Automatic annotation (TrEMBL):
PANTHER family documented for this protein: 39S RIBOSOMAL PROTEIN L35, MITOCHONDRIAL, LARGE RIBOSOMAL SUBUNIT PROTEIN BL35M
Protein name stated in the entry: Large ribosomal subunit protein bL35m
UniProt keyword Transferase present: no
GO molecular function: structural constituent of ribosome
Organism ancestry: Eukaryota, Metazoa, Ecdysozoa, Arthropoda, Hexapoda
GO CC entries: mitochondrion; ribonucleoprotein complex; ribosome
Family to which the UniProt record says this protein belongs: Belongs to the bacterial ribosomal protein bL35 family.
Keyword Ribosomal protein: yes
Keywords: Mitochondrion, Ribonucleoprotein, Ribosomal protein, Transit peptide
Any Gene Ontology biological process: translation
Organism: Chironomus riparius
Top-level taxon of origin: Eukaryota
Localization terms from the record: Mitochondrion
Alphabetized Pfam families for the sequence: Ribosomal_L35p
Amino acid sequence: MFRALIPAISNVAGLARNQVKINTLNVLARNFSQFSIKPVNIQFPALNTACNTQILAQKSLIQPCQSTIVRNLTKFSLRKAKRKSVKAVIKRFLRLDWGIWIRTRAGRNKRIWRKSPAQKYRARQHVFCNATQSHMLDKMAGEYYKKPKYFVDDLYRPYHSRESYSKTARKPRDWDL
């Protein structure tokens, strides 16, 4: 049985070699992280038996994934033609009163059992977004979320003011020190 398959397989391999372009393989190999393996039907006209075509027709070829980054920003709503906030930004980030955005660390709740105490401590911390990210998040959030909010027992109250920097300081400096 296997001896009957060997000529068919070599014939299929010759056909496949002729059909695949070397340039496309080089492009696929260069940027392999954007690709996934998906089953694809391949037609082999040189095979005569139906059994061999069923066995050899299912091959896995590398195809590019169709994934793009989407930021669902509505610039003009249908009813009032107003800009809308992106709800994912509101859920994941917090804007401090002096304009910077903070977020929690990625993967902070994953595999806690194997993290060291120092890693667990760092995972509980919040981090600042940089200026470019803050500018983008400002555009994705509405005016309501940019205004200062005054909550009772706000955990972030000490961080809403930035007294160490003269541009954002609200209290006058005490020069008598």
